[in-house]
Amino acid sequence: MEKGQVTIRDIALKLNISISTVSRALRGMADVNADTKKRVLEMARELNYEPNQIAQSLRSNRTNTIGIIVPDVQVHFFSSIVSGIQKVASKVNYNVLFCQSGESYQTELNNLKALIASRVDGLLISLSRETEDIEHLLRVQQKNIPLVLFDRISDDIDTSKVDVSDTDGAFKAVKYLIDTECRRIAYLAGPKNLTISNKRMEGYLHALRAAGITPDEELIVHCNSLKEDAAGATAQLLSLNNKPDALFCVNDPVAIQAIQVIKKHNLKIPEDISIIGFTDDPVSALIEPALTTVAQPSHEMGQCAAKLLIDQIKGYDGTSRTVTLDTKLVLRNTTKLLNP
């Protein structure tokens, strides 16, 4: 036998039986007698035989594989989502192919083409920061490939989606700042095209107006790059003649960078300025001072998205559904305590 992957032909030659008999025995067909089936399975183990997944997928038109695209796997939030997806997929014997866009629209397109070429049965996607045109997603639907969006979603496509209550979470955060007597509350936002940033903006504005506070445009600063722009945006706010007394940040990485800048300006947190983030990244509890934040159930989000997708793949549910998960305000040391 030549070196390389063992095939059913190799097993057939070893046992001097037909290839079709080996194939039927491996599939557990009833027309193969018990003795032959036992010999085939023993020889398969001896030769370390592995089924040809490509051949099987061509026969069944299924690969039992789902594709995932996230913006940045180094962000704990997304790695936790992927873990949730993997947990659900493994239970139903589905494999996972994983890609990251690096917040690039073009890379997202390339990832999508690669996953489709790999014949995935369905796709789970969280859109990149640059993604505004969703034509590539519409083409996925035209190919009848099941699709679920999560976290970074688009309202311009009718497909199943999983998100969190961004607006309500932001409202709860800003209301807490108001309840602790903050009045000049700034919002360090994400890019203007990012849906989650805009939903959190809605909650921010709603909380201000509900408290009779007129929103101030100079207190809203957009960070086009969530990693690189937060420090400059914070410095911009601290340079105002009438400085903010609180910052609500679109996510924890932005809030953590803001904390570093505030420290360099020799301001005390939360005595001079309070800060609330959004995500509940594990590092948020470890920094000094520990960050008050809005917790998102990332692992649960991944599980929910995977279940929706697998139900579509298996034909259990052909309707589009949007599942919105609750958030929770986690109080730590970057905010004042409520007066008793």
Output mean pLDDT. 92
CATH superfamily of the largest domain: Response regulator
Major β-sheet annotation: 6 strands, parallel
Q: Structural class, from secondary structure content? A: alpha/beta
* The CATH topology of the largest domain: Rossmann fold
What percentage of the residues does DSSP assign to strands (E)? Answer: 15-25%
Query: Which sequence of SSEs, written as H and E, runs from N to C?
Result: HHHHEHEHEHEEHEHEHEHEEHEE
CATH C-level label of the largest domain:
Alpha Beta
* Count of the domains: 3
Span between termini: 81 Å
Corresponding CATH architecture of the largest domain:
3-Layer(aba) Sandwich
- Strand element count: 12
Unreliable residue stretches: none
Protein name: LacI family transcriptional regulator
Domain HTH lacI-type: 6-60
InterPro entries: HTH_LacI, LacI/GalR-like_sensor, Lambda_DNA-bd_dom_sf, Peripla_BP_I
Keywords: DNA-binding, Transcription, Transcription regulation
What would you say this structure looks like, in words?
The protein is an alpha/beta fold and 340 residues long. It folds into three domains: 8-51, Orthogonal Bundle (434 Repressor (Amino-terminal Domain)), CATH 1.10.260.40; 64-163 and 298-325, Rossmann fold (3-Layer(aba) Sandwich), CATH 3.40.50; 166-297, Response regulator (Rossmann fold, 3-Layer(aba) Sandwich). The protein contains twelve helices and twelve strands. The protein has helices spanning 8-15, 19-26, 34-46, 53-60, 76-91, 105-117, 135-142, 166-179, 195-210, 230-238, 252-264, 298-313; strands at residues 65-70, 95-100, 122-125, 147-150, 160-164, 185-189, 220-222, 246-249, 274-279, 292-295, 322-325, 328-330. The strands form two sheets. The protein has a six-stranded parallel β-sheet with strand order 2-1-3-4-5-11, with helices on both faces. A six-stranded mixed β-sheet has the order 7-6-8-9-10-12, with helices on both faces. β1 (65-70), α5 and β2 (95-100) form a beta-alpha-beta unit. α8 (166-179) runs parallel beside α9 (195-210). The model has no long low-confidence stretch (mean pLDDT 92).
